[in-house]
């Protein structure tokens, strides 16, 4: 039986955001920058900012998974997702992925990172099974 469901749900949301952001940042380096470099260039940002953002996504994903600086990383990701959604992808549309990708995932990550960044109750969760689950007592044979 789970004793504190909200802590467990927060942990799963934090892990989901961390894994998603980590893979997204890693993909930028493995596949190449592609459409992201075109979008960054169109708004006047230098191209090295793209590598900086990719590195921050990887480091932020690892920090979220490990539970280090969760609140600060989530607030930084909120800013990143806000800029990505409203400055780069808003004209593409919510579900149109034909050009450079829609902003549906960005919007979901924006709200998820905002929730994690603003909810300070569970920012220092160290997950241990025995604290969150009640295991039945096993009696030794008599």
From TrEMBL:
Keywords: Cell membrane, Membrane, Transmembrane, Transmembrane helix
Keyword Membrane: yes
Compartment(s) where it occurs, according to its Swiss-Prot or TrEMBL record: Cell membrane
Topology of the protein relative to the lipid bilayer: Multi-pass membrane protein
Keyword Membrane: yes
Residue ranges crossing the lipid bilayer per the database entry: 7-27
Family label: Belongs to the DoxX family.
Protein name, entry field: DoxX family protein
Source organism of the structure: Pontibacillus salicampi
